Amino acid sequence: MTRKRPRLLRRLARWTLFAALAWVVFSVLLVAALRVVPPPTSAVMMARALEATTSGEKDFRLDYRWVPLERIAAHLPVSVVAGEDQRFPSHNGFDVEAIRTALAESEDGGRLRGASTISQQVAKNLFLWNGRSFVRKGLEAYFTVLIETIWPKRRIVEVYLNIAEFGDGVYGVGAASARYFRTTPDRLDAHQSALLAAVLPSPRRLHADRPSAYVQRRAAWIQRQVRQLGGPAYVER
Fold this sequence. Notes:
The protein has 237 residues and is an all-alpha fold. It contains ten helices and three strands. A three-stranded mixed sheet has the order 1-3-2, with helices on one face. A hairpin with a 2-residue loop joins strand 2 (165-167) and strand 3 (170-171). The mean pLDDT is 90.
């Protein structure tokens, strides 16, 4: 009995190591493939579709249309960067300065706010589930490193613009531009781009086509930030 237990433990350790290595190889190959292949869906889309099915939302429709970056107006990538992650072109996936600021504000009694970069949001939306567990945050960091290592910045912003939620069931700029402005992504003007970027923090509550006073103020702020950043050239295309 005593001899069998160490043998069983060694076998279990080998299988655990093998499974871990297989998962790492699979995840690397998956991220490498998505550098050139448009994602057919995302974890967030699948979770929302499942939620709608289980809750009996018969009117729910998921709208997702992949659009290459070349067919997206130059105003939109820089508007999203201005609103969500202004150090996107220079950081390696994690905005250390924003994290420090958020922690300092929390220590001073403020609410701990998020400091997620566009790269982190792509990792979470594409591969993971919603939640605040340490496991999910660890996986988010892992996929963020993979994405920043394997993809160019151009690809990261392209995927983000295509899988970001712009409304309930509305994913990506292709669906959003058609739904809210009855146009194509390449014809979005600077103001429309700013409105789409303005709703990203809460896309099911905020509306690009029926902007509240808050959305209008935020869109105006985003347009000012775009000008200060130097316009569309700030984001590599």
